[in-house]
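Example S7 (structure tokens).
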């Protein structure tokens, strides 16, 4: 098939509405990772400005509930980082609400790592693509590994508990251990 396709990785706020305007038949794959290791990974990135606090960061206002959670955590940067993950996840939920199953697929990163071939089969099927021999050979050389257990070693037990409780319902939505 010689059709033209565009594939891209987008992080941060979703651009689903914008991209649907450009490509009405666009398909979106949302790969979700547990918010706690994601938050710690984000905190190490130069663009992550949780250190500025909610009045000076670039991610917009928190909901009243999120603000109360952050305040109750003694304004923990770890909690703010996991609230940012939740904020972005909920933005994707809102932006994708009108998409049907032919245009939106949501997967967990951990499932991709646990069953890479089966998960990639879902992705390719969703995208109306087939395994190309050269792609399949290259894909077979990658060792995907979820490292979600590392986050607990990077925070205190109290910080881990605060992070988990801050976004508990969103973690449970994705069947993450709370």
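Recovered sequence:
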């Amino acid at each position: 098939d010689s059709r033209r396709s565009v594939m891209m990785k987008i992080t941060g706020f979703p651009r689903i509405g914008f991209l649907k305007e450009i490509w009405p038949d666009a398909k979106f794959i949302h790969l979700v990772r547990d918010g706690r290791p994601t938050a710690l990974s984000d905190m190490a990135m130069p663009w992550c400005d949780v250190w500025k606090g909610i009045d000076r960061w670039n991610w917009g206002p928190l909901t009243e509930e999120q603000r109360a959670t952050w305040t109750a955590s003694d304004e923990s940067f770890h909690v703010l980082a996991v609230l940012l993950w939740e904020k972005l996840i909920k933005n994707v939920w809102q932006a994708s609400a009108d998409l049907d199953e032919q245009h939106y697929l949501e997967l967990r990163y951990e499932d991709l790592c646990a069953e890479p071939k089966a998960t990639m089969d879902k992705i390719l099927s969703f995208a109306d693509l087939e395994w190309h021999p050269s792609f399949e050979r290259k894909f077979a050389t990658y060792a995907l590994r979820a490292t979600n257990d590392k986050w607990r070693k990077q925070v205190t037990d109290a910080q881990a508990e605060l992070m988990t409780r801050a976004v508990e319902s969103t973690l449970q939505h994705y069947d993450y251990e709370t």
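Notes on this example. The mean pLDDT is 93.
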